[in-house]
Design goal:
Elements (H helix, E strand, L loop, with lengths): L1 H24 L13 H5 L8 E4 L1 H10 L3 H10 L1 E2 L5 E3 L2 E9 L5 E9 L3 E9 L10
Parallel strand pairs: 1-6
Antiparallel strand pairs: 2-4, 3-4, 4-5, 5-6
């Protein structure tokens, strides 16, 4: 009887661990936007006009693959819609996705990470309609 009790406990423990891992893989709401930040709060976190844009190596590679130039990125920063469903908050800070259409008609999502001193890091650039063959670090 004691052996069976431990088998049930082990099964429950395994299920709990699998549930916890699965929740993390799907990007559960707990890993998303910080508590208390409404959609208007995210707007105040980004400087749409005057921020210094720091383009990460990964973003620069993705821009090249997807034929998106820096001016198109700046246009999306200036007028794109914040996708609150895709906002993420991690130890590195918050990343905010902005979506819009480039001047040549590509529907894109750019992800920026606001930093201090009116700086923003461009994390990545995603074409929402086309899957581009690309090997970026």
């Amino acid at each position: 009887m004691g052996k069976q009790k431990y088998t049930y406990l082990l099964a429950i423990l395994v299920l709990a661990v699998l549930f916890w891992i699965n929740r993390g893989q799907r990007g559960d709401a707990g890993s998303k936007a910080p508590a208390g930040a409404g959609s208007g709060g995210f707007e105040s976190m980004i400087d749409r006009r005057g921020a210094k844009l720091i383009v990460s190596r990964h973003a620069r590679c993705r821009m090249g693959c997807r034929q998106i130039d820096e001016q198109e990125v700046r246009d999306i920063i200036a007028s794109g819609r914040i996708n609150t469903e895709k906002i993420e908050d991690s130890q590195k800070g918050i990343s905010i996705p902005l979506e819009g259409v480039t001047r040549d008609g590509q529907r894109v999502r750019i992800v920026v990470a606001p930093k201090k001193n009116r700086e923003m890091v461009l994390v990545t650039v995603i074409d929402l309609d086309t899957e581009w063959a690309c090997e970026c670090p």
